[in-house]
Amino acid sequence: MKLTQRRIVLALLAVLALLAAACGSDTADTDAADDTTTTTEAEETTTTEAMEEDDSAMEEEDAMEEEDAMEEEAAASLTIWADENRVESIQAIAPAFTEATGVEVVVDLVPFGDIREQIVTAGPAGEGPDIFAGAHDWTGELAANGVIDPIDVSAISDSFLQVSLNGFNFEGANYAIPNAVESVAMYQNLDLVAETPATWDEMIAACEAAAVENCVVVPGGGDGGDAYHNYPFVSAFGGYIFEFDEASGFDASVVGLDNAETVQGVQFLADQTTAGVIPSTNYDGAKNLWLEGNAAFWITGPWELGGVREQTTVANWSVVPVPAFGDNPAQPFVGAQGFFLSAFSENPLIAQSFLSDFIATDETMTAFHAADPRPSAWKAVEAEGDDVAAFVDAASTGIPMPNIPQMGSVWGPLGDNMLLVRNGEIEPEAAMTAAAEAVRAAVAG
Amino acid sequence: MTETTRDRPSTRFARYTGRAFWLRTAIVGIVDAFLVLGAVQFAQNRSWAVLAMLVLAGLLINWAYLSPRAQASRWLTPGLVLMMIFVVYPVLYTTYVSFTNFQTGNLLSREQAIERLENVEVKTGESGELLDMLVYRDGADQLALLVAGADTPPFMGLVRPADGDVAVAPVAGFDAATFDPANPPESVDGFELLSGLAVTGEAGRLEDVVLDLSDASSAEVETLSSARLIVAGLRFTYDSDADTIFDAQTGRTCNAGEGTFFCDGVPEDEVQRVARLASDTTIVCAASVCDDVPLFALDQTLAGWREVVGVDNYVDLFTNERIRGPFGRVLLWNVVFGFGSVLLTFGLGLGLALTLKNDDMKFRSVYRSIYIIPYAVPGFLSILVWRGLLNNEFGQINRMFDGLGIPTIDWLGSGTTAMISVFLVNTWLGFPYMFLIASGALTSIPEELIEAARVDGAGPWKVFRMVTLPLLLVSTAPLLIGSFAFNFNNFLLIFLLTNGGPPLAGYDVPVGSTDILISFTFDIAAGAGRGSQFGLASAIIVLIFVVLATTSAMSFGLTKKLEEIYDQ
Amino acid sequence: MTSELRPARRPLKVWFRRSGGRHLVAILAAIFALYPIVWIVSSAFNASDSLASARIIPRDTTLSNFTDIFDSEVTSVGRWLWNSFSIAIIAAFVNTFIAAMAANAFSRLEFWGRRVLLTSLLVMQIFPQFLGFIAFFVLSQQLGEVVGAIGFNTHAFLILVYIGGAAGFNAFLLKGFLDSIPKSLDEAARIDGAGPATIFLRIILPLARPMLAVIFMISFIATFSEYILASFLLNGDDQLTLPIGLQVFLAEGYNAKWGVLSAIALLGATPIVTVFIAAQKHIIGGLTSGGTKG
What we know:
- The complex is a heterotrimer of chains A (about 450), B (about 575) and C (about 290).
- In chain A, about 50% of the residues lie in helices and about 15% in strands.
- Chain A is of the alpha/beta class.
- In chain B, helix 10 crosses helix 14 (about 415-445), helix 10 (about 320-355) packs antiparallel against helix 16 and helix 16 packs antiparallel against helix 19 (about 535-565).
- Chain B starts with 8 loop residues before the first helix and ends with a helix.
């Protein structure tokens, strides 16, 4: 027993000794600092003497503090999370910003999908970035979570495509600097079908004439639901997800998925699937069919441009708009990509400056477009090639994808039910009723 | 209560003096010093949970390495401390989250949420003119700002701290009449114009600076080179004594409640319609006036805070029709999947171990090396590869079937085949581990027992059933239970291979044939009305854990009994 | 060796009766085990990148999938591989040692609460660690404020998470093996005057080496492929591990990058397989010698 006590006492002594050493080193540092300003006193100065010194050395110390402050501010830094498509362009302009302002810019590559998940935990905890890349449909949820701050773009709003600014507008405020827009259009295999169809009837007739096995491939069948790619059918005859009003935006209390117009559009999809015009393929299936030259048309977005340009199987191809449904022009979803300002930035002014002075410029926007073929949201950037221009046209006729937080409860039910329709497991009307009910139930909690 | 019966006190005494003792005491002392230093800092940062763990760890370490009676603890302490921090703490934290409203709109701390509200400006529908701004600094390190706009006369003011906020007082020497925007003065009254680089250095001091312009209007610094005329003031004022917030835009005072502020007497048309529909809000409306309206129902960007809400999430779990609907089906498949996976992997692993048991079998080491390969390929990669192989149109399996004239199967496209595919892939992923375990366990079965059974006239099958299998199960049962628990929550496999699909019709939530509880939970938590619901998700996780832990603990007890029987 | 003792006539038939069935089973299992592997290998060397054009013996073989990995300007697969390896090796090493210490206590010492503690270790292990990601996030952030080296976005913190998460189960695995080492060995050493530490280091550990190797492999593989926690706790190109880094590659649909995916899978798996095959005699031999329980 005694031994134990002795040991504990010894351990405590050791603790105290170490603590003393730790504190002692602090004192030593202070002394050393004093030495540089006064020089005459030995280390064993009493407290009062030290205070007197402080008085005499006041001015010098002020000057030093100022230097310290300068150093701290010079060490100010911006952290930016960028996804794989934008990281290089940002890294390329960062040195120019550092040179002009002395602010160090740290650009971290964070996979696109991870940014949204991590920002809501990292931001409030103080581990988040100052600026991060993202998509416009995140806006509502991030704003409702209070993790992003509005960005004033009124001075430069004319430089952006209006549809991109609409995308990032939530409850009347703009939340990002847009850099790209995207919407689906059609990749056409000109070797199979030469003329560009204006309507679905023309397209189906052309496919029949050319005896094409798979006329139009659209993701969202097979084993992978995809409400995004199927949306042109929802909106074909005037259907919608949430009611939209120019003044107040999307109203999540009015769900239009089971109205007659939506059901008509989905019925059209079901009919074409039954008729063999649209095979039930998932994303990869659709892509492979077209890339192998086994499908005439492929509905998807500009993110596939890189791969399509590189492939050699389909020699002659072009990008054309999704044809009209009778008299109704197709209205795919339009999405926007941009940069958000974190609400937890320690240097919001610098971050704003970076966004408005360095991101929203011709050079940077051109660099983004060069690295990623999506149409630029910056009007001054010329679409690089006819194929991109076609996507710009598609984006200008589309309708913005809702950015309200309730949109999160739509993708699952809508994608799943349209998949079931395409696989012939359920009637369109029943499917859309189920989808609408599921969305209403989710919105009501 | 004796820790050890083997060590006699005299020998122990001998070991605890001398160099080893001093060394140990010194090391514990150093560790303590760091722990105390850390504890002080964690206390300052108000990281109470970390502090508590630190204190516990410290006590354990001191006791374990200083008390002569703590024999076993010396060996266990490193593992126990790490487990406490990285296993027990997450469990406790998840339990805590399950009692909070941690979800979209309630992610911030109370302080963060109120601070944000205090910075919200009154909404007027128009934004003020954007003014160009130049920054000046004098020898005394004071800053001055010069702003000018198309409709706003040039103004230069001195930045100085006032009442905690920062205001700007006019600089006397500035002559607005002679100001030329194209050629701004390099210096005024000893203030020198700063370059872009130098302005950035002062960014910290420019935040929230408000300029009181000469014509009674004011402007706020917006970027490092611009300020904006303020059209209206700030919207909310927080009264910390009453714990209420005053809304200048509507003239209402709102009271703090669960997770946000609640306002009374709000006209119905101000409340967002979707908020009135939502079942988780408290809003009461009568005669076109609503009471108990949470701030986010007026404007979704007015974020609330997270706080403890008691058993709300658990109540929700048991009463919410959306979740209850498909719950039974998902649970059933989850149990089948868990048991089936263990059965298939263990069956194949054991079968192969038995096959290779004979010492004189040729190429044994070759086979073993081959069987271990699936285990060595990182799981997330092989799952993706399998998904490709099982692809309906282009997967190699269907191409092979096609080549052999067998009708192809849409492996991941229909419920039954998707379930079979999940089992197939999981068996491939899991059998090598079971093969290893079973090989090890087989060799630990005494050959005499098997020999004895054989002598008694038992055939190979009977020997296996009566001797080998029971003994094997006794030694591997805990691993099998562990494997069941792992597979029960095998999120990565389901997520990457089928993502729960193919979907099932007829439910109010997205749910698929191969969804297990965890993947189903995450779909619900992520696809909730207003975004993610971490609180609800945590409640489900806690429930799963409690059920699994209880059944496992009981199974372990059972194993113990078996062990006793067979040890005799 | 035994075959030499067999009768010389009709050796094939005898051989088949004795072990032909076994070989048949073993070969079928080997085909099952290797089926996806063959595809990985062939796709890694296939010049055509898409899944649809994959074939067992590629029409054009190429190394471009490998050069693509390392030439990419955006991504740094080499760095990710290194990160994954270093994290997994450190975690597995420390894990094995800590598990060995704990197993030693459970196997060699009688103490109050032993059974309860052992059971609770196993029960706690049932909590899927990845679900604690929010807790880990908060923890890393608070730790990081005081000790930057084990804060958010550090490999050290991730390693600690992996060690803490697996310690209990590994200790249990190892305990079973240590039980089979005769206690008479320690007794003899004790009489010779060896302390518990000496017995552990000089007698137990060497005898348990094969099982330690198994624990090391299990920990290494589990850590190497861990995805969810790493994706929450690491950020930035330089810090990522292979699984998260791959997200970047696969962001646009993995199918088009089938060849590159296969090449990476091959790169990631080859070292593990090599190490295992090299050590397999040792490991299995060790498992076998576990049968000395007296």
